[in-house]
Design a protein that fits this description.
The complex is a heterodimer of chains A (515) and B (552). Chain A is mainly α. In chain A, 63% of the residues lie in helices and 1% in strands. Chain A starts with 8 loop residues before the first helix and ends in an 18-residue tail after the last helix. In chain B, strands 1-2 form a two-stranded antiparallel sheet. A two-stranded antiparallel ribbon of chain B has the order 3-4. A two-stranded antiparallel sheet of chain B has the order 5-6. Chain B is built from 26 helices and eight strands. In chain B, a hairpin with a 4-residue loop joins strand 3 and strand 4. Chain B has 552 residues and is mainly alpha-helical. Chain B is flat. The chains are: A mainly alpha (515), B mainly alpha (552). The interface between A and B is large, with 37 and 37 residues.
């Protein structure tokens, strides 16, 4: 730079021109280069995206075993689907037959189109898995407890939105797989008719028919359904997810960061590395904490066990992001997203299967569409939503499988959950169910008594027994949640790998009757 | 922090490495690039890029020419490798018809297995090369083809009169040049499609008288009958000799007696209109050895129908492997592509808009097309395991007694309750003039003629004392005690009794039918005495009673 001040307008102009990189940087970063803890903190706080983070993060939250990065992994998978999804939208045409052709073109001629579609598909699956595991983590560490009840509910909303996103994306390729999976989904939406039919109400009161109509925009899966699913998939549900996720992140920070045991500081012990708390003397210590009421991260605690989010938390988050990307890329490389024949309403798929995460429900749907598709999922969702309000205990918060009973209880619940699910499925597969025993049995009876409801009842009774035995709601919740998780896993496994044509049980697809 | 940094480093390197590999895989190491790099045109290597034929009117986007570069419009020929060379000359320019229109397969694909359609979840794999002209059936499903006998005799005439010395047909002949080095005769391989002048014969004859040289030595008069056969043969020269042969065989075996194609045929077997387009994945290959291809399925099915389709009543109609492959070829040609009418060939328009048949309609071809499977190619009757015996309608004893009216009534109204359909009444059956042509052909199976019969149709006097007992003794064992049939045909049939005269019944009983189980009852046999004329008359009257009994 020239030492002398520029005098003429031209010289000033040239100097400004030269200063553009520096000035642009200053304008972007606002508070100058974030190179000290203090400036980094204000950078995080002042950035529209980063301010969803806490400025400082507890050392407990950075331990890998605290969360295994599952929430970030779900977020990362969502970002990957977002990027790849937008790229796919450049070529995708949401109209029957044209949709199928456009996917063929994406597969065969769009440069790297096949790879991007594969990533999109795998990231969507990774996201579903990560969301489910993240929920399990939050449950087992008691993260739903006060003051995080609301965020648990938001999380449930995110789970439903994630499944909705995945399900609506399933129809878009307009192939046989898509067409018949959505047909099943639509029939499940219509399944309240099972009850209204049995009660002779359908003509005057038909919520099932209305639900199906709302879902498909028509009586069959067709162009109306496709454009509807497309809109939901690329616009409405992503917006809902954005909103819920923003609140979810924000509430983590406002609810005092990630859950940790009351004695987290003792467990962590003193810092091994001598890390300066502030590299620069603070001008206004705790000014922020002073105006924030309640149990927030910093109130009443020294800063000794917290670290600046930038860079500590960001390294962890970016690490998980890149790991997730790597996983999705690797999966995309070894396995192509499926694309079967063009959708053909005249040739039903047999077996027609829903997306894998719904196959556990489809397993129950085989007996009663209403209970499997709507009744039991509703019971589960309501149960999940009630957990934080029924379990008001504090023991074991922040610990894996914390609370009365602990790990042994969870192991026992795994045995009970898997055992009873296997037993009931074995009976249903080996000996059939009420319909096979009494062909004239009314449907309402089967709706009430089927493997799904029996299993739910067994789990519920077991959990009530646990509550009594341990004199703790948490113990019952631990047992019930574990049981449902095991039942879900087992039924999903059976639906995915052991069900063939006409939903008959087969040990291997090799045994399927040839056709 | 160190662990997280390492995680970030690891994740980033992993993603970066995978992206680099994928970028190379998806862009550089594509199969078609490798294929194009082997293509050496005379003017240098071909430009490496995706190529495609797009015909919106046919709904075709075919990227086959990405590998088969020489076949795309405006590209140089790549001699040496037939897969990369220019397409063999055909009347349909691939640039305006696409590839999959004829060959089937997955035109949008850019990888060999996907494009040839030999992958799961692609319902229309390529038609095998040996069956290539079955693809013509996509549009030309209506070529008028006679039965094999007529086709062969036309070909025999063509060869006997030495037409091949000047004319090339299907790659044979055409060596002699008139006037010593003059122009050779035109290639007649497609003359049936292109059409020819009606006065070709007169012109040839005149030339043979005036032009001299080879004209005089090679061409002479051809009798009208043989000229008719010759023209039948010429009309089938449409550039698809194997398809014509296959279609002729299909229409010689009586397949349409049970199967409908394009709405025409019987109802006993499955409709075959689009049998060549069936998704192999929807076929049962449990009992089919070898590859899971449609042609394999059909060939095995023709070898052993009930072995491939359990419960099928269809008999094995042909034995030689050549015929099995021909029938397979014809079935593969049953495609009926849906195209705008502007693309329809003339024969298809004539068939679908003007109601013409998609096969020859002379009596002989109609007979072999609809009747031969059951009644035999020469009316000798057929016997298939598990099915009742089919009557020998070419039997002289039958033709000597049955009037044309009776045969026509039988063809038209069938035998209700039995396998014989009412060809003149059912949908997809025969038109009145076709019934007449079939009757004339049946009549031609034997030189005998029915004698004029002065008696009224019904003249037999009932004889309550003898009729039932004689019938029970002599007839019931084969025809059933109530005429319901058994080893012999059912007699309690309103079409039979409505069209047969008493004279017909009387004489049939009296003389029997030679070559069948029906004996001459006027002569004694080892198991029973002869029936007198009055006993036969009483039986005729008794059988006549079934007509009334049936109406109950």
């Amino acid at each position: 730079m020239s030492a002398a001040l520029p005098h003429t307008a031209i010289e000033r102009f040239v100097a400004n021109l030269k200063a553009i990189p520096n000035n642009l940087r200053a304008a972007t970063l606002r508070g100058g280069t974030p190179n000290t803890d203090r400036s980094r903190s204000s950078f995080v706080f002042g950035n529209v995206f980063l301010h969803l983070h806490p400025v400082r993060v507890h050392r407990w939250s950075l331990r890998w075993t605290t969360t295994f990065g599952l929430g970030i992994m779900a977020t990362a998978a969502f970002l990957i689907t977002l990027v790849t999804g937008v790229l796919l939208m450049f070529y995708y045409k949401p109209y029957p037959d044209a949709a199928y052709i456009s996917i063929k073109d994406i597969h065969f001629v769009v440069p790297t189109g096949r790879f991007i579609r594969n990533i999109h598909r795998w990231a969507a699956n990774v996201m579903v898995v990560a969301v489910l595991l993240h929920m399990a983590r939050a449950f087992y560490t008691g993260a739903y407890r006060k003051p995080r009840e609301f965020n648990w509910l938001i999380g449930m909303g995110l789970l439903v939105t994630t499944l909705g996103l995945s399900f609506t994306g399933y129809l878009l390729p307009w192939d046989q797989l898509a067409y018949w999976a959505i047909t099943i989904g639509a029939n499940i939406a219509q399944s309240p008719r099972e009850v209204t039919d049995a009660l002779n109400l359908t003509e005057s009161f038909d919520p099932g028919g209305l639900q199906k109509l709302l879902l498909l925009g028509s009586s069959e899966v067709g162009e109306e359904a496709l454009i509807r699913f497309f809109l939901l998939h690329v616009m409405l549900l992503p917006l809902v997810l954005f909103g819920l996720a923003a609140v979810h992140f924000w509430r983590i920070r406002k609810d005092g960061g990630l859950v940790r045991p009351a004695n987290a500081d003792e467990i962590l012990g003193p810092r091994t590395e001598a890390y300066p708390v502030f590299t620069e003397a603070p001008k206004k210590t705790y000014q922020l904490a002073a105006i924030v009421k309640g149990k927030t991260a910093a109130v009443g605690k020294g800063p000794e066990n917290t670290l600046p989010s930038m860079p500590h938390l960001f390294y962890a988050e970016l690490g998980i992001l890149m790991l997730t990307a790597g996983i999705c890329l690797a999966l995309a490389m070894v396995s192509d997203a499926p694309l079967k024949e063009l959708a053909n309403p005249a040739v039903p798929e047999n077996p027609a299967k829903a997306p894998w995460y719904f196959l556990g429900l489809q397993e129950l749907v085989a007996h009663s569409a209403f209970m499997g598709g709507i009744g039991i999922p509703s019971i589960v969702l309501i149960g999940l939503g009630l957990i934080p309000f029924l379990d008001r205990e504090t023991a074991g918060t922040g610990e894996w499988f914390g609370g009365p009973g602990g790990k042994p209880l969870v192991l026992q619940a795994i045995v009970v959950g898997l055992g009873s699910a296997i037993a009931i499925e074995a009976v249903a597969i080996q000996f059939g169910w009420i319909r096979e025993w009494f062909p004239k049995a009314p449907q309402l009876l089967i709706t009430l008594i089927n493997p799904g409801t029996v299993l739910t009842l067994v789990y519920a009774l077991y959990s009530v027994w646990l509550v009594k035995k341990h004199d703790s709601t948490r113990a019952g919740a631990l047992g019930l949640f574990t049981c449902f998780l095991c039942g879900f896993a087992l039924l999903t496994l059976i639906g995915t790998y052991f069900r063939g044509p006409n939903w008959n049980f087969y040990w291997s697809p090799a045994d399927w009757p040839a056709h | 922090m160190r662990n997280n940094k390492l995680l970030l480093l690891f994740g980033s390197f992993l993603s970066l490495a995978l992206l680099v590999v994928a970028a190379a895989q998806e862009n550089v190491f594509r199969e078609w690039r490798r294929v194009q790099s082997t293509a050496k045109a005379p003017g240098g290597p071909v430009e490496k890029r995706l190529r495609q034929v797009v015909v919106p009117a046919l709904g075709v986007t075919d990227r086959c020419v990405t590998c088969h570069v020489g076949m795309s419009a405006g590209e140089p020929n790549v001699p040496g490798n037939p897969a990369l060379a220019a397409h063999p000359p055909i009347p349909h320019d691939p640039a305006s018809y696409g590839c999959t229109t004829c060959h089937s397969g997955q035109g949008r694909a850019t990888e060999k297995a996907d494009a040839h359609g030999t992958v799961p979840h692609w319902p229309e794999p390529m038609i095998p090369k040996v069956n290539a002209d079955a693809g013509c059936g996509t549009c030309h499903s209506h070529i008028e083809v006679p039965n094999t006998k007529a086709l062969r005799s036309g070909q025999a005439v063509f060869e006997r009169y030495d037409c091949l010395s000047c004319h090339k047909v299907d790659g044979r002949g055409g060596t002699l040049r008139p006037g010593g080095g003059g122009m050779e005769g035109p290639d007649l391989s497609r003359i049936g499609a292109a059409g020819y002048k009606a006065d070709w014969y007169e012109k040839h004859l005149e030339k043979s008288r005036t032009a001299g040289g080879p004209w005089t030595s090679t061409f002479g008069t051809i009798p009208d009958v043989e000229r008719g056969d010759l023209e039948t043969f010429l009309r089938t020269r449409v550039g698809a000799p194997k398809l014509v042969l296959a279609k002729a065989l299909f229409h010689s075996l009586g397949c349409r007696g049970c199967h409908k194609i394009g709405g025409v045929g019987g109802d006993d077997g499955p409709e075959l209109t689009a049998a060549g387009q069936r998704d192999p994945a929807l076929s049962d290959f449990t009992h089919v050895p070898g590859e899971r291809t449609l042609s394999n399925w059909w060939a095995e099915h023709f070898r052993n129908p009930s072995g491939v389709v359990p419960g099928s009543q269809m008999p094995a109609m042909v034995e030689s492997e050549e015929d099995i492959q021909l029938l397979t070829h014809y079935v593969l040609s049953l495609r009926r592509g849906k195209f705008p009418e502007a693309f329809w060939p003339r024969d298809r328009i004539r068939a679908e808009r003007f109601g013409e048949r998609e096969f020859a309609t002379d009596g002989a071809t109609l007979y072999t097309t609809f009747c031969a499977a059951c009644h035999g190619p020469a009316g000798e009757g057929m016997r298939y395991a598990g099915l009742p015996v089919f009557p020998a309608i070419g039997n002289p004893d039958f033709l000597e007694l049955a009037t044309d009216e009776m045969i026509a009534a039988t063809v038209k109204s069938g035998r209700p309750g039995r396998r014989m359909p009412a060809w003149g009444e059912k949908a997809g059956g025969l038109r009145p003039e076709e019934v007449a042509a079939v009757v004339a052909h049946v009549r031609s199976l034997s030189p005998v003629r029915p004698q004029p019969d002065g008696k009224p149709r019904v003249w037999a006097r009932p004889d309550a004392a003898h009729g039932p007992s004689v019938y029970a003794r002599a007839c019931a064992s084969c025809h059933g005690d109530k005429g319901q049939g058994g080893e012999g045909p059912a007699l309690a049939n309103k079409v039979l009794l409505g069209s047969a005269s008493d004279t017909y019944l009387f004489e049939t009983i009296r003389r029997g039918r030679r070559g069948t189980s029906m004996e001459a009852f006027s002569r004694p046999s080892t198991t029973r005495p002869a029936l007198s004329d009055s006993e036969i008359e009483s039986v005729v009257a008794f059988v006549r009673g079934f007509e009334k009994g049936e109406k109950k």
